Amino acid sequence: MVQSRFFQRSNGMHKVVIGALVLAALAGCAGSKMKEARAGTPYKTLASDKATLVVAECVQFGWQDESVFGVDAGGFKEPIGAGGFTVYTTAGDYFADVQSAGTGSTINYYAAQDNIPAKRRLAALATCL
Questions:
Q1: Of 62 and 11, which is predicted with more confidence?
Q2: If you ran DSSP here, which 8-state letter would residue 64 be given?
Q3: pTM above 0.85?
Q4: Where are the domains of the chain?
């Protein structure tokens, strides 16, 4: 059987490449879910006196807490227009758009369903206001 040299290397680089491809695929799925959700009404809209980056980083850190979210713990942050950020979970079922509003921020939180995980993510988000 002929194998590519790529998979014969023992340095683990192929795992990094495969991991990056998996994340890219998930981001594509998450992106389409988020686009559809934004066309509707947010699960909750919140306001903060804090800067967008401070709020976004706090939400990202809170959503990565395995003691609260278990295997679903995951928070990723990407910039969006006008200095804002989107913080989202792996599959994009839960995400928050943090945008500048005067000297503070407005947070639009979206959840795929009104369930306990959605409420837990909202509670974690609320600690960042």
A1: 62
A2: T
A3: no
A4: 5-126
